[in-house]
Task: inverse folding
């Protein structure tokens, strides 16, 4: 399955053909496609005249968001709680899972802070032990994690599906299966993978998954979702209680008939009011991604990141991750000063990120081979300059 990249650019990302910018920073913030921009603007116009917004428009928009988010991860809409970011979902896991004093939560070093601080706070307030396993050669050590599952009192594992800095994609199915066999809760920060890599939360035995939509899902800030496994939903009580977290709260004529009986589905974890305009735009972006096909997007990204990997191998430049572990990120460690390489890329109009001493390139569905070659041409100049400088230094010492 494939799609017309150039037609997609013209239709949804017309600015990309101006030539002044090569945008390769979707692991940071994804641009909004034209359809999402239009939806957001339409909701702003409606908000200016709120009597035009019906109950069905508001809550139908959220229902469609749950359906689309569920489809992306192989879940049911009843297992999806709409959230404003990844952090909220990870806090939900840290505060709602039945973890007790002395229980151990395992993760990796070099995790993004959103998947660290909620667990550190839980350790401080509830006496839970939060342990971060060392990485190996800059990437998560899955073997060490699997071995650590048999330590006493391990009750939860919380990891990023795709590392924000190295781009390394974990084998969720293998880790999730091992956790399920031992009765260990499996929590996943999926923001760097959903939408550009296929995922089935059931096949991967995921208990809670958190995902913001502002990166690879090409949606506004303030939109995201959390998956909670159906069998867990009713067993967990919300740490934060919204006024529509409870049963029968859809009837606005009886709001003072207080009854703290939570909904039977994942909406019990939602804290209304949500930004409807952001979720309306999210829906448009998700319709685009679903229409293109996640598998087709993944194939396109593999061809682009593969160009970078081939370039790096030919020059002896370190790049991560290996082909079998890539989603959309490839991180290159240029010779010399990475900050200088970053500055040269920025001067050339190549938008990227400098993360943990590496140049992080993260293309998406509409980027082209020519854009990758433009970035590599700049990096090639940096590599040549660093090599010449090293040679001069050696000659002077000789």
Result:
């Amino acid at each position: 399955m494939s799609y017309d990249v150039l037609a997609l650019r013209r239709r949804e990302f017309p600015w990309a053909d101006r030539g002044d910018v090569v945008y390769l920073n979707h692991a940071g913030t994804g641009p909004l496609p034209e359809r999402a921009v239009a939806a957001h603007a339409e909701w702003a116009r409606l908000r200016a005249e709120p009597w035009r917004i019906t109950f069905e428009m508001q809550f139908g928009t959220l229902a469609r968001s749950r359906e689309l988010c569920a489809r992306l991860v192989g879940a049911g809409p009843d297992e999806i709680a709409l959230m404003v970011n990844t952090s909220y979902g990870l806090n939900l896991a840290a505060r709602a899972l039945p973890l007790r004093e002395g229980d151990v939560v395992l993760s990796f070093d070099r995790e993004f802070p959103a998947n660290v601080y909620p667990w550190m706070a839980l350790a401080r307030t509830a006496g839970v032990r939060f342990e971060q396993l060392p990485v190996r050669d800059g990437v998560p050590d899955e073997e060490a994690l699997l071995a650590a599952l048999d330590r006493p009192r391990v009750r939860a594992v919380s990891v990023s599906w795709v590392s924000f800095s190295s781009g390394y994609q974990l084998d969720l199915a293998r880790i999730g299966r091992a956790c399920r066999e031992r009765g260990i809760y499996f929590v996943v920060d999926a923001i760097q993978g959903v939408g550009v890599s296929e995922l089935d939360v059931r096949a991967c035995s995921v208990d809670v998954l958190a995902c913001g939509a502002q990166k690879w899902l090409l949606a506004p800030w303030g939109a995201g979702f959390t998956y909670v496994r159906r069998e867990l939903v009713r067993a967990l009580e919300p740490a934060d209680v919204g006024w529509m977290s409870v049963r029968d709260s859809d009837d606005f004529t009886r709001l003072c008939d207080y009854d703290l009986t939570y909904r039977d589905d994942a909406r019990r974890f939602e804290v209304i009011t949500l930004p409807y305009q952001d979720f309306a735009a999210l829906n448009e972006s998700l319709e685009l991604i679903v229409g293109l096909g996640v598998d087709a997007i993944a194939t396109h990204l593999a061809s682009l990141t593969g160009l970078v990997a081939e370039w790096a191998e030919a020059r002896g430049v370190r790049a991560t991750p290996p082909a079998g572990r890539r989603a959309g990120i490839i991180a290159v460690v240029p010779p010399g000063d990475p900050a200088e390489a970053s500055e040269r890329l920025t001067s050339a109009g190549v938008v990227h990120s400098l993360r943990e001493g590496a140049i992080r390139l993260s293309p998406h569905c509409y980027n082209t081979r020519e854009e990758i070659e433009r970035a590599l041409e700049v990096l090639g100049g940096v590599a040549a300059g660093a090599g010449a400088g090293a040679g001069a230094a050696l000659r002077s010492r000789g």
